[in-house]
Amino acid sequence: MVENEKRAGRLLDRILPAYEPDGEVHGMPGLRIRQRNERGIEVHIVGRRTSAWLTGVPSPVWTRCEQTALEQVADIGWHALWRGPREWSDAELVFEQRWNTGEWARHVQAGAWCSSGLLRRLGIFHTITPADAVTGYKGLGINGYEGVGPVRWCIDVIHRRGVPYRKERLVAALTDPEFGLPVAPARHLDAIYPPGRNESCIRLDDDDRSGLIELRFQTFNYPSLHLGSCEPEYRVIAEGVERRIARVLSAGQ
Fold first, then answer.
1. Measured between alpha carbons, how far is 248 from 64 in angstroms, rounded to an integer?
2. Which residues share a beta bridge with 121?
3. Any idea what DSSP says for residue 184?
4. What is the pLDDT of residues 124-172, one digit of tens each?
5. What's the pLDDT tens digit per position in 163-211?
6. DSSP character for 236?
7. Do 42 and 35 contact (CB within 8 A), yes or no?
8. Alpha carbons 219 and 132: distance in angstroms, whole number
9. Which helix or strand (DSSP H or E) is residue 110 part of?
10. d(CA 17, CA 230)
């Protein structure tokens, strides 16, 4: 379910398959629209019985978004595949055979313990660090490892200006021998990424080199969090952030 037309358009842009001549298949290979009605759009992968409904906005909105996607594909000289053929196209089959060998899925699964452990320890980002926001994603591999290296989980810890990072305490919690993860500072990367050149980034990995945690500390100004100027609907959120940061800072004194 999406909440507005902008999100609906972005979703279709990401999943509807299109072929770039002499290039690759973008979107989800084999995806087709099974039906369109007042509920929304039903999509499925050719040859599979399961399907998914895209809902949340009126049917005319989905129609406009799909038409926009068609026009964008045509403008750049690609071929829209989600309207046909009914079976897998030759381009999709070639793409699947070349790239979807299962090797990448096995690689990510081998490092899934790391992200799972981080999710179970989200509380430390609310208690040890007085951060305004914490976001994360799976990054690309980096130099310093053989092959593709470990699965790299990038964690952005975002503070407002003037608030201390408390990096050492966060690392200590993540590497605690009893309650932390089986990771340690990736010292072997120091020759490639000297710590003095990037003091806002700390990397932790495990002995088997299957998971890499990259803590990236950032500082931003948040005018919208100044209680006198923020919109009424955000004031409760802003006040909650202010209280939490004050509580964390006072606990560390």
1. 48
2. none
3. E
4. 988 888 888 888 888 888 999 988 899 999 999 988 888 888 899 999 9
5. 888 899 999 999 999 999 999 999 999 888 876 666 689 999 999 999 9
6. H
7. yes
8. 10
9. helix 103-110
10. 41
